[in-house]
Design goal:
Distance between the termini: 51 Å
Strand order of the largest sheet: 1-5-4-3-2
Number of strands: 12
Radius of gyration: 27 Å
Largest sheet: 5 strands, mixed
Strand content: 5-15%
Shape: elongated
Helix content: 40-55%
Number of domains: 2
Order of helices and strands: EEEHHEEHHHHHHEEHHEEHEHEEH
């Protein structure tokens, strides 16, 4: 179970910032709990059925054999419903602590892989960020302890006691699992708060926590696939959780990047390239024209006979050409027949639009002037660097004339 807190051709006309689409727009409202809107997505029924089946068909019969099928299923359904209530308590604890620090809460939603607390604002300090994040796992661990205490008090020999033991175990597991150090898990929020406190740079902290989230997600996907290969269908669930974590971490990193870019334009974030290399040149001709400071650039635009962009090549592609073949290999030969052509944008296009285009199509953006001649290139690395500088109040090309 996971827990998360969320917050084409490119034209010339700047657009106002877009609001992130709210997830689970078709969730069923469950009223307001302490003033906080609560909803349940239909997919939460999958979790209810799955856990009820696991309890009634295997966990309870193995723990307490001899009861009737009706007793197992009744206990299984009630226990699964109680577990979903603990997931809701987990999420509401995030919301309560967030409101304590002045962070507005949009709503809490239960869904197939757990719950989601949608916050409208960012935490004001690293301390607030950490406490909001820890509130959920802390609540799950407390619930686990309470269930364990109740199981001891009522005795674990009957079905109610076995259900309480299972509740104790699953609640502790939920709390510990969500402390894994990667966005969007609560442990990723704690890691973000730690980096934020250490670096005094929230953008850098978000990026670091998102990278950790991708590592956690990839690890879970691989473990899930190994389980499936070993014959355990539960690996599908683990792989699905890992896939969700990877996508959520990527989305959060992209959203933070867009916010930091603000009103920057393409020519504010590009790597300057005053002229493109003719595509008919050989690799040796191009290398002979490059100066030492140009060699460190990651990509180079190519132009056709009209001087218009025809593609880009990377420094790594130039390095791969053997020295004895550089006289015979033309730059256009390095493009390959199946390469996706670069996206061309005007210098006054919003950098946020460039970021969206890169996220959708991948590849590299070439910035062109009014005559459609290349004046720079934009990669993901350029956007990240520009976002960091913008966070500090600088533009990459402030020193350049407009």
């Amino acid at each position: 179970m996971t827990d998360a807190s969320t917050t084409t051709p490119i034209g010339r006309t700047p657009r106002p910032p877009e609001k992130r689409a709210a997830p689970f727009t078709h969730a069923v409202p469950l009223g307001r709990w302490g003033g906080i809107p609560v909803a349940a997505h239909w997919s939460v029924l999958v979790t209810l059925v799955l856990f009820a089946d696991v309890l009634a068909a295997s966990a309870l019969p193995l723990a307490r054999p001899g009861a009737s099928a009706f007793a197992y299923w009744l206990t299984g359904v009630l226990t699964a419903a109680a577990f979903l209530a603990t997931v809701l308590a987990h999420e509401l604890s995030h919301a309560v602590v967030a409101r304590h620090y002045g962070v507005r809460v949009n709503k809490v939603t239960l869904w197939m892989l757990g719950g989601m607390t949608e916050l409208e604002d960012e935490p004001p300090t690293p301390r607030a960020d950490a406490l909001i994040a820890f509130a959920g796992p802390g609540t799950s661990l407390v619930i686990g302890g309470v269930c364990a205490g109740l199981a001891w008090a009522v005795g674990s020999s009957g079905l109610p006691g076995a259900a309480l033991v299972w509740m104790a175990w699953i609640s502790v597991f939920l709390g510990v699992f969500n402390l894994l150090p990667g966005t969007p898990l609560d442990g990723g929020r704690l890691l973000r708060a730690l980096f934020w406190w250490h670096y005094h740079d929230r953008t850098r902290a978000v990026a670091a926590a998102a990278r950790a989230g991708k590592v956690v997600g990839i690890t879970l996907v691989m473990l899930g696939l190994l389980e499936v290969m070993a014959g355990a269908l539960s690996g599908v669930w683990l792989a699905l959780i890992g896939w969700f974590i990877i996508n959520a971490a990527t989305a959060e990193q992209s959203a933070t990047l867009l916010a930091e870019l603000g009103d920057l334009r393409a020519d504010d974030v590009m790597s300057v390239s005053s002229v493109g290399s003719p595509e008919w040149w050989t690799v040796k001709q191009m290398l002979d024209q490059l100066s030492p400071h140009q060699v460190i650039r990651p990509v180079f635009p190519l132009v056709n006979f009209e001087g218009h962009p025809s593609g880009v090549i990377t420094l790594r592609e130039l390095e791969r050409v053997p020295a004895d073949s550089r006289d015979d290999t033309r730059l256009r030969d390095l493009l390959g027949p199946r390469r996706i052509p670069p996206v061309l944008v005007a210098r006054d296009v919003q950098a946020t639009d460039v970021a969206r285009s890169l996220r959708l199509s991948g590849g590299i953006v070439i910035v062109v002037d009014e005559a459609n001649h290349p004046i720079g290139v934009i990669t993901d690395a350029d956007l990240v660097q520009a976002a960091h500088l913008a966070h500090l109040g600088f533009h990459r090309h402030q020193e350049l004339p407009s």
